[in-house]
Amino acid sequence: MNLNLYGHNGQWLMVDCGVSFNEPLVKGDLTTSEIVCADPEFIASQKQRLAGIVITHAHEDHIGAVPFLWRRFNAPIYTTPFTAEILRRKLAQVGLLGEVTIHEVPLEGEAHIGEFHVSWLTLTHSIPEPCALFIRTNAGNVFHTGDWKIDFTPVIGDRFKTQLLERFGSYPIHAVVCDSTNALREGHSGSEQDCYHGLLETIRGEKGRVVVGCFSSNIARLVSLARIAKETGRYCALMGRSLQNMVAAAKVSGYWPDDVDVIDSRHIGFLPANEVLAVATGSQGEPKAMLTRLALDNCYDLTLEENDLVLFSAMIIPGNEKEIQRLVDRFHARGIRTLQTHDTEQVIHVSGHPYQDELRNMYQWLQPKLAIPTHGEAEHMRMNASIAKDSGVPRSLTGLNGDLFQISPQPGLRRKAVKARRIALER
Asked: Do 182 and 199 fall into the same domain?
């Protein structure tokens, strides 16, 4: 549930405004709320100083709170075309589409937002148009990575461009605020092209129905699955509104290839078993999603039978282990096979976040004076800081929600400078 604030010369710039799902408001509490976000009171109480809101990409943990919180900020939003399309659809659902000013920034574009000059750099991740931000002020420059990885064969969108990073490395960079999600993993994250080949080899030999659970925002994965359906004599259907909405946005934004087809999910149940390839929501065991309905044999469009295969092309988000295992057990009780990443040597999922070698590359390209690790638990951020040190970064600062990081003129950290807590949202 990202909500970052950069302050300079009496103004603030907000970067991302996201949500999380089915989490407690207080760590350790057994009671959970369906939708959770960061409490925006600190900036909402001084919204006249908020120059603008920048959204780095369209994942829920970066964009999901905007429709709920925007009235508290009443600030213009800056983002790239695909993310703007997703945001407009969300705003329309709550009746805000005509009220919110959205500045659509071209890829590799830039904008002056109050005291901040912001440049967008398109990297690679598990959704179209993931952007790093180069934020320049009179006091210093910050490189905010957002969510990223290095993928030279990403299936859709442009490949990772090292020359962009090298170009910005020629500027004085006072701090890199960097993704730590996979900092404990050695080596290099895989490519979406590797995942395509692994899924193809896995599905090619199947005789029955195949259902794939994956995140709806991973357009590259959906394109790969639709192509695999065509190559294996199957028809691809998308089961779940979020999947259908994302593909519609991808088509509007030019990210869905013209030669890749999907069929209406209402037709998939009438096909022979060996012609079915369905993509379904609910890879994290969500109780109302399509995979759970399929496991309970409570889906209008498709019924699974013994020896059909349910394939999980998604990571297990920490905290969801019990829900996913409960879902797997329900399938097994009906004789339906499941396949997760730890069950096979084939690459059926790749992460959207950088492993250790990629972090080293980023620091070596940018050569910042300071590293500020974000995302993940404390051990992830500590490892990120260690990698930065080994890569020649003179200093790192790690902290917690509510801490104030001073970047210039003298780096420092003020603990608990802002009251940070969570609040629940209602749909």
From this structure: no
CA dist., res. 249 & res. 376, Å (int):
29
Cα torsion 62, 66, 72, 76: sign = positive
- Judge if 88 and 152 occupy the same domain: yes
Q: Which two tokens stand for residue 416?
A: 């608990």
The domain containing residue 134 runs over which residues?
Answer: 4-187+353-425
Which amino acid would we find at residue 48? Q
Same domain as 96, residue 55: yes
Same domain, 269 and 299: yes
42 with 146, same domain? yes
Residue type, 220: A
Q: Evaluate if residue 427 carries a pLDDT over 80.
A: no
The pLDDT value given to residue 18: 97
Q: Taking the C-alpha atoms of 67, 72, 73 and 78 in order, what is their torsion angle to the nearest 10 degrees?
A: 0
Residue 348 lies in a domain: no
User: Which of 343, 372, 396 is a domain's end point?
Assistant: 343
Which residues 6+ apart lie within 8 Å of 308 measured at CB? Answer: 208, 209, 210, 211, 273, 336, 337
Domain count along the chain: 2
The sheet carrying 395-396 orders its strands as 110-113, 116-122, 131-136, 141-144, 175-179, 370-374, 395-396
Q: Please identify which residue in the block is written with the tokens 């807590």.
A: 421
pLDDT, residue 62, reads 97
Examine the pLDDT at 299 and tell me if it is beyond 90.
Answer: yes
Q: What is the pLDDT of residues 243-258, one digit of tens each?
A: 999 999 999 999 999 9
